[in-house]
Amino acid sequence: MEKRNNAIDIARGFAIILMVIGHSEMPGLLMRSIYLFHMPIFFISAGYFFNLSALDNPCNFIKKRFKGLYVPFVKYSLFFLLIHNLMFKWGIMNEVYGNWENGVTHPYSWHQFWQRMIYIVTSMEGYDEFLAGAFWFFRALLVASIMFLVLYKLLNKVKFLHNRTTAIPIVICLMAIGLGLALSCEKLRISMPQGGFRDTMGLFFFGLGVLYRKYESKIGHHLVWALVGASIVIGASLLKWSGMNVRPTAIDPLTLPITGFAGWIMVYNISYHIAQLKSSKFSRFIAYCGNNSLYILVWHICAFKIVSLIKILYYGLDMRQIGCHMVIHFNSANDLFWVLYSIVGVVIPIALYYLYSKYLAPRIPKFNWLVK
Fold first, then answer.
1. Could you read off the pLDDT of 304-340 as tens digits, one per residue?
2. Span 184-202, mean pLDDT?
3. Cis bond before residue 326 (omega within 30° of 0)
4. Alpha-carbon distance 92 to 195, whole Å?
5. How many CA atoms lie within 13 A of 28 on its CB side?
6. The 3-state secondary structure of 250-274, one letter per residue
7. Cα separation values, 275 from 1, 228, 342, 370, Å
8. Mean pLDDT, rounded, of the chain
9. What would the DSSP string read from start to end of 105-130?
């Protein structure tokens, strides 16, 4: 069990690193491939650890989910809300340069500030899109995990379902795909931030993680599975299939389960074999990133600004381009700055957290709330 859990840590480590690489605007086939599976890995790994004992104590399960997802979301969202206008005064953000869709951000008025605060606390939206653009994951995983528990308890009362530990997760996964099809084909929206498609597919992958753990021993751990998964992902990328988009097309709910699971069996089987090897600095680093992926998720965009400054100086760009989200778009299809963005986006947050937890936290415990 310990080795298997370590494999999950390594898989999550690879997933968070791939997320950072994807946000670095790496050009070409590899970037499209990454977006097909890197976020599903987190939902599958969460479902992997779902324990049926939660059915007997659902309040405790929900309490833990809120503590692990809602609390850090609110804490960090409010922090970035508080410093939003300061970022304009310090020149980190501006109203000229923005994201690759030509969108820009603006300083908040008092009305906007309080409205966003209310959204953050009550509906897990309203977070700073340019400094906390990946925060949708907190809400999606919270919704997916709680909905899985609720649906499992309801379906557990259906008498004609046999082999319930298999049948119920399958039914939940099928329900998620059905809802995803309704949302994408009819352009419907659930009354929640971003319309609910990501949360719905998160529910599917959470259920898939539950099923995978049950049948893991029968599936086995073979590198050939990694090759099969990689082949599917690359083929899907060539076909230009999509990942967990906010605005899904009609085919996305049918293709995303394929690419998400293919990416999972690729990454997990590689991680499993790495976990079986003699412990190395590489495997420990990847596992450490997986165990502390929260801090990379939260701080990698801020770390990107260091590389943006270097790129500005290298090309002699307008200094205001440091406000580009997530990275500077100038010549990103041709240069290799995405490599530096990827390295800094992972190493700086995880190194600062390591140094803080090892040397500073024991001495200044009153500030631990900002990190823990």
1. 999 999 999 999 999 999 999 999 999 998 899 999 9
2. 92
3. yes
4. 30
5. 7
6. CCHHHHHHHHHHHHHHHHHHHHHHH
7. 12, 20, 24, 32
8. 93
9. --PPPHHHHHHHHHHHHHHS----TT
